[in-house]
Amino acid sequence: MAVERHSTGVSLAQSWRVERRVIWALVLREMMTRFGRHNIGFLWLFVEPMLFTLGITTLWTATKSVHGSNLPIVAFAVTGYSSVLLWRNMPGRCIGSLEPNLSLLYHRNVRPIDIYFARLILEGAGATMSFVFLTLFFHALGWLELPEDVLQVAAAWVLLAWFGMSLAIFLGSLSEISETIEKLWHPLAYLLFPLSGAAFLVDALPVAAQKVVLVLPMVHGVEFLRHGYFGSSIVTHFDVAYMITVNAVLTMLGLALTRKVSRTVVPE
């Protein structure tokens, strides 16, 4: 990985240029490692999450799933399951990600946080391209209207991505301290799916249940996104300030843990 070394006497701009080059090099390496050059190659980056969303959309449509509103199942599935893929896959990519990349840490400019960022950028890009493509595809078929407020949908998407990234960095660093995290995350991720707001509208729940699910920050993100997408045709419940606060706390905890891990991890 041909990246210049800078340690002392460098400006912030120079450090940023080095950081960008390091992360981009790691992104390219990750793409080659994960997708290779065969079949459709890096296109699997967004085809894979798109297939998951299509599968859920087909299943929910076939079973005529009830979600507590008059929204079309396709619209409900695309906005809900795409959101789940965005935040849920990120921790899975970062947990245990340092072990197979220990040799990269011999490079002075490569740090554990760079490995996390490279994987998170790929996951975020894949989920985003899948969401945009499916929205345009179903709109072309006449099965889905375009968002009423694109900016709000984009803002909600950024909040959900921020939540996924901060959670991923936190759990990824924690997994270097305790192997139990890797064992616990997979069942926890499946348990969180039905509670994440992807498969229901909060307003359709009893008041007591609404208070419980709104403790989960991703529910606020999904409701915020659906409010931007469907507008006043549905009643939504969300607190953007709450989600930003949770994201900020998770980010600080994650970065603090990553700094601790960086001091103890041994390159091989």
Automatic annotation (TrEMBL):
Instruction: Tell whether Iron is among the UniProt keywords.
Output: no
Parts of the chain that traverse the membrane: 41-63, 69-87, 116-138, 150-172, 184-209, 229-253
**Family affiliation:** Belongs to the ABC-2 integral membrane protein family.
Sorted alphabetically, which PANTHER family does this protein's record hold?
Answer: CAPSULE POLYSACCHARIDE EXPORT INNER-MEMBRANE PROTEIN CTRC, INNER MEMBRANE TRANSPORT PERMEASE
The UniProt keywords, alphabetically, are:
Capsule biogenesis/degradation, Cell membrane, Membrane, Polysaccharide transport, Sugar transport, Transmembrane, Transmembrane helix, Transport
Principal location listed in the UniProt entry: membrane
Q: Say which domain of life the source belongs to.
A: Bacteria
Membrane topology type:
Multi-pass membrane protein
Q: What is this protein called?
A: Transport permease protein
